[in-house]
Structure formats: C-alpha cells, structure tokens
Amino acid sequence: QAKAAGRNTLRFFDPQMQAVVSARAALEAGLRDALAGDQLQLYYQPQVTGESEMTGVEALVRWLHPQRGMVSPAEFIPLAEDTGLILPLGHWVLETACRQLASWAGRPEMAHLTVAVNVSPRQFHQVDFVDQVLTLLERTGAKPQRLKLELTESLLVANIEDVIAKMTALKRVGVGFSLDDFGTGYSSLSHLKLLPLDQLKIDQGFVRDILTDPNDAAIARMVVALGDSLGLAVIAEGVETEAQREFLADQGCYAYQGYLFSRPLPIAEFESLAQSYVLQNKELLAPVK
Ligand code: C2E
Ligand code: MG
Ligand code: MG
Ligand code: MG
C-alpha cells in the first residue's frame, strides 16, 4: 500500500494521517472562533498553605467548544503554541486574570489572594512582553504584587540573559515568578540561581506516586531542599490525598494545590470556596470565651 501510494505523496493519501491533519485544522479554526467569540473561560484552583490558609490561586484556561464541550488545555495549548494563536490567547488570559485581581481588591475576603498565570515560552519571548504586562496592570488597576507568572524550564535553555532581563523588569514593579512543572525539564542548576524566582512548583508527576516510588520521593525532597537553599517557596501540584500532603509537609513543602483541596472551579464557585476558607480561619483566630 505504501509503495502504491508513492514516496512523495504517501502522507497525503494515508487516511489516518489525513484524519489527523484535518482534525488539527478543524481545531485550529475552532480556536480562532473561540478567541473571537466568548468560548474561553478561566477556572481557578486554590493554593493552600500548611496552615490551611488559601493564599493564592492558579488561573487555568478552559475552552467551551460549541460541539465538543470542554476541550482540555493539554490539547489546545500545544496547538496554540505551534500556530502562534498562543499570543492572543495568552494576552486574553493575562487580561482576564488582571481584571479578576482588580475586582477582588475591594473585597476583604478576596483581596489577599495572588493569581498565578501560565505563560508559554513563545508568549514570554515576544519583544514587548514586559510592556504588555505593564500596560495590562495599569489598564486594569491590578496590583502587580498579586500577579504571579508561571514559567516552565523550557524557557531557560536558550537566551537566558533576555529571560533574566524581562523577569527583572517585571520584578521591579512587584510581579512574582514561579517555575512550573519543576523537575521535568532540563534547566541547569547554575541557571536557576541566576533567575529572580519566588517559587518552585513540584510537578504533579512526582507527587502522584510519592508514597510508593522512592525515586519520586527523592526528587520531591531534593526540590524542597533546593528551594530552601535558594530562598524559594516550594509548592506541590497534583496533591490528591491527605497522605501525599502529609509526606510533602514532612519534607518542608510550603503550599499545595490539587484535588485534595479543590478542582479548578468556575469563578462563582471559586469565590464562595475562598470565602469559606476565610470564615474558617477567622473562627480559628477568634478569641475563645
Ligand atoms: P499546569 O500549569 O501544570 O497546571 C496543572 C494542571 O494539573 C491543570 O490541568 C490542573 O487542572 C491539573 N490538576 C490540578 N490538581 C490536580 C490533581 O490533584 N490531580 C490531577 N491529576 N491533576 C490536577 P489543566 O487545567 O488541564 O491544564 C493543563 C496544562 O495546560 C497546565 O499545566 C498548563 O501547562 C497549560 N495551561 C492551562 N492554562 C493555561 C494558560 O492560560 N496559558 C498557558 N500558556 N498554558 C495553560
Ligand atoms: Mg501552571
Ligand atoms: Mg504545573
Ligand atoms: Mg504540570
């Protein structure tokens, strides 16, 4: 069959490959519509400290596709990266998160929260990325100190001076930085100490089997120790059980994010969860009569 199709035309007549190509094209066209219309939403997942205090939240994009329902970012973010659609998409995410931050500033039960936003390498490498963020902060009135940008290690393999310069410019106004999915990439430890980071995020891949896989446990321990010695807070993602949380706490982990506390939630549900956290803590702090 391969021979009959010929060497150069093979992939165009391979029905399986053809299906993949057209599914991708459909997804890309759909994503353009999603950006133009109002099919994108941010969901919010709490970040909780060892003292059961919710100090922050990660904003995670969702695509509510008119036919397919909820499409996972794991599916469309890589596509958005390849096609360049990540630039308008990433800008929309940043703007939406900043608006949310600004609207929380006047609400005592929400005002303390930081919002973490995922920034893809292609988005960060734009020459005017720093200006975009500064403009959004100014336009929305969001406090830079409440915004945290999540970067991945893939950003750190090339052009490290430019990365440091951009981070430094944003840090100067108060924006924080977290290194997402830490341990899955190839960042060198010598680079790590050059970066003006605030936080390391242990990838959920190491958390999943942390109780049964000694290698994962060792890596998690190493990340916490590394954070300690570099003066960075360490947060673990994908924490699903109390046993995982306890294990991480024993290592000295500072905060946790995962289904144990909550799935990522639409804004209204997230706000009522955040409120209940504040109420709970007030009760704990209230003087005993
Ligand atoms: P991430 O930044 O590492 O986000 C964590 C992912 O783990 C999220 O998947 C979250 O829903 C999921 N998760 C949280 N807690 C648990 C848990 O306890 N167990 C398990 N199994 N999973 C958990 P999600 O929302 O599907 O996002 C996947 C990835 O897509 C994100 O990974 C991030 O890399 C990317 N992404 C999401 N939103 C954005 C965005 O606005 N911009 C960019 N550039 N990337 C985004
Ligand atoms: Mg993230
Ligand atoms: Mg992550
Ligand atoms: Mg991850």
TrEMBL record:
Domain of life: Bacteria
EAL domain location: 24-278
The protein's name in its UniProt record: Diguanylate cyclase (GGDEF)-like protein/PAS domain S-box-containing protein
Organism of derivation: Rhodoferax ferrireducens
First and last residues shown, out of full length: 774 to 1062 of 1062
